[in-house]
Specification:
The protein is mainly alpha-helical. The chain has two domains: 178 residues, Growth Hormone, Chain: A (Up-down Bundle), CATH 1.20.1250.20; 189 residues, Growth Hormone, Chain: A. The chain is built from 14 helices and no strands.
């Protein structure tokens, strides 16, 4: 029996993928060492928390604006602007001589951090609808690649001094920007850009608002898990910094495998609106298993369920945003969605840390499971209502 012919990828897709992967490698270089680096300037744990939150707050404000701008002037110039901003922000962080300069660098980096959402819109521009879920999933795998390679590169660069990883990240972003100027295709048609210039407003499609709320809740839950797992692992399983890093490396590899391969095959058979609740069910179960785990087998099962569920849920949600967004407003819709993620990343870690301190070691994981369950119920309610409206029209 002969295999079916594979549909070739759209021209320019790998250029977009490489651009995103390199951008996220730079992000992966900076994030693991930023807290320790900030302590050199007298930052307390509270200040470090706000240093991370500042990035997401800047992204919350600027992601929708850059998304709209990409609808008006094209994807390519906005991605280049984002990469240049990342280069500047990382350089300022590396050259900082005071704590306030670190905050300035993070604000610039967060404000320019729209390359992923704009790249997702660019992929949606170029991909046929049948091929789009696979390509969105593969783009999500670039995120995992960045977090696998970034910390390793950052650790090696740190051997040259505490400032060096930030200069490496800055240089990587600058080279990426130059490469994007030369090789990145423009996927935005002049017709769509002209339409948006005549009417420029926030997303008015109800489904996009519902998906943003669901995205906020699920991002809140996963950010709570990320922020407190090292504390949980140390308390329950005596994990060290190194062994905790290995756990996150394993999660990253599972995400790459799911989003880079398995999701495309699943989405070919099952629509995203059906895949998404299945994936959230796995996340709910995985977080609950982690919360109750006192033995390694249960912990591994919980982390595997969480990783697979997250790997399917994220591209499924992006595909639904692509489906409901008007073609001429995809950049704005992606920025709007990314902005909702930023809210979750700002709120999740401090509330999870407070629960860990005041309620118990298990509480952040169980709370994250409950918040994801709420997102699942809201999504099912929205999906069923939408079906009724469609049927009755």
């Amino acid at each position: 029996m002969s295999r079916p012919e594979r549909t070739p990828l759209p021209k320019g897709y790998w250029t977009i993928w490489t651009t995103v992967a390199l951008d996220l490698v730079g992000f992966g270089i900076v994030v693991p060492i930023l807290g320790v680096y900030a302590e050199r300037f007298g930052a307390s744990g509270y200040a470090v928390g706000w240093l991370f939150a500042t990035f997401s707050l800047a992204q919350l404000v600027f992601a929708p604006l850059l998304g709209r701008l990409s609808d008006r002037i094209g994807r390519k110039p906005v991605i280049i602007i984002s990469l240049v901003g990342t280069a500047v922000g990382s350089f300022i962080t590396g050259a900082a001589g005071a704590l306030w300069v670190l905050f300035l660098g993070r604000v610039i980096d967060g404000a320019s951090g729209a390359s992923l959402s704009v790249a997702q819109a660019a992929v949606a521009d170029m991909a046929p609808p049948a091929q789009r879920p696979k390509l969105v999933g593969m783009l999500g795998a670039a995120f995992g690649v960045g977090f696998v390679l970034g910390p390793a590169i950052g650790g090696l660069a740190a051997l040259g001094g505490p400032h060096v990883p930030f200069y490496v990240a800055s240089a990587l972003a600058a080279v990426n920007a130059v490469a994007a100027m030369v090789r990145l295709p423009e996927t935005r048609s002049e017709h769509h850009r002209a339409v948006v210039r005549r009417a420029w407003s926030l997303p008015s499609v109800p489904a996009l608002r519902y998906l943003a709320v669901v995205g906020l809740l699920t991002t809140f839950a996963f950010a709570a898990f990320e922020a407190t797992f090292s504390l949980f692992g140390s308390d329950r399983f005596d994990l060290t910094e190194g062994s905790t890093a290995m756990v996150f490396l394993g999660i990253g590899l599972v995400l790459v495998a799911v989003q880079g391969g398995a999701f495309g095959r699943l989405a070919h058979r099952v629509p995203a609106r059906r895949l998404y609740p299945m994936a959230l069910t796995l996340v709910v179960a995985g977080l609950a298993c982690v919360a109750g785990s006192t033995s390694w087998p249960l912990l591994i099962i919980g982390l595997l369920l969480l990783s697979v569920g997250q790997g399917v849920a994220s591209p499924s949600l992006i595909e639904m945003v692509n489906t409901h967004a008007p073609p001429e407003r995809r950049g704005e819709a992606m920025g709007f969605q990314q902005s909702s993620y930023a809210v979750g990343r700002v709120l999740g870690p401090p509330l999870a840390g407070s629960a860990f301190d005041r309620i118990g070691v298990w509480s952040p994981m169980l709370a994250a499971s409950a918040v994801t369950a709420l997102a699942l119920l809201l999504f099912l309610s929205w999906r069923d209502n939408a079906r009724v409206e469609t049927t009755g029209s």
